Amino acid sequence: MKCSEDYKHNDESPQEDEGFMGMSPLLQAHHAMERMEEFVCKVWEGRWRVIPHDVLPDWLKDNDYLLHGHRPPMPSFRACFKSIFRIHTETGNIWTHLLGCVFFLCLGIFYMFRPNMSFVAPVQEKVVVGLFFLGAILCLSFSWLFHTVYCHSEGVSRLFSKLDYSGIALLIMGSFVPWLYYSFYCNPQPCFIYLIVICVLGIAAIIVSQWDMFATPEYRGVRAGVFLGLGLSGVIPTLHFVISEGLLKAATMGQIGWLALMACLYITGAALYAARIPERFFPGKCDIWFHSHQLFHVFVVAGAFVHFHGVSNLQEFRFTVGGGCTEEDGMQ
């Protein structure tokens, strides 16, 4: 696409003839096309300006309390990706999960290439923890990509929002795998059952998230509830572990404290997102920084890291005791 630096209207455009019926609509259509071409050129060249919420098209309206600083519709992926380096309502959303994605990618590579002597069952344990890293990286990747390109068009927004929600479910499912594996290390039967249950629930959440209405502002609370419920399904295996092993062992060997902290971070982030806090109380004051979606992103990254720390402690315990399973453990 070639766009002149200073766009000028074509001097040979049709002249308005007030006395001839049908000429005025033709002229209006011509001018509308010129304005559209001018806008596309500005977007393509990165010369767009942020706009207020009330002039956004309906498919870009998500949070009524963010009044200013929105990107306009930009039907160019090039312009969308260039906007990563501009300041607008999505800047924080993009960078929190883009940097988080890079962090977990590097952490995962470091973990996967650790010496095999750090594991009781090297291949099996690397696969188990690798599923957590895969879920985290996919979740964060889908998220920052969605926030980068969702202003492209309604169709692109709908597609990437479904990927974004699917990524959340994948992160939750991937987080369950290493925790269940190490917590029920000596009792694989309940571990297998709980893994089947979380996979079924996770797939159900992904299927529900493909519904077009799921991404609308009216279903914000439903979205938070679906993923919060998926995460809270871990309460049942946690209680199972506490009852079978005892509170003291669960708090030390089982790293229940880190698990509880992770749950608090995820729940707090989801609650802020659903209630749109703090911008609900300060409309127009948190348009660019510290609005609920950004805070939600920060809590997700923090929660994922806390979970990994707890799982690492579980893994170190199993390596220290060399498995440490007895026949009584297998009977529980």
Distance between the termini: 68 Å
Classify the fold: give the CATH topology of the largest domain. Answer: Rhopdopsin 7-helix transmembrane proteins
What percent of the residues sit in helical stretches (DSSP H or I)?
Answer: 55-70%
Overall shape: elongated
Counting DSSP E segments of at least 2 residues, the number of strands comes to 0
Structural class: mainly alpha
Low-pLDDT runs of 5+ residues are: 4-22
Overall tally of domains:
2
Largest sheet: none
In N-to-C order, the SSE pattern is: HHHHHHHHHHHH
**Chain-averaged pLDDT:** 86
Q: Using the 3D structure, state the CATH architecture of the largest domain.
A: Up-down Bundle
Number of helices, where a helix is a run of at least 4 consecutive DSSP H or I residues: 12
* Strand percentage: under 5%
Question: Radius of gyration, Cα only, in angstroms?
Answer: 25 Å
What is the CATH C-level name of the largest domain? Mainly Alpha
GO biological process, one term: adiponectin-activated signaling pathway
Subcellular location: Membrane
GO molecular function: metal ion binding; signaling receptor activity
Biased composition (Basic and acidic residues): 1-12
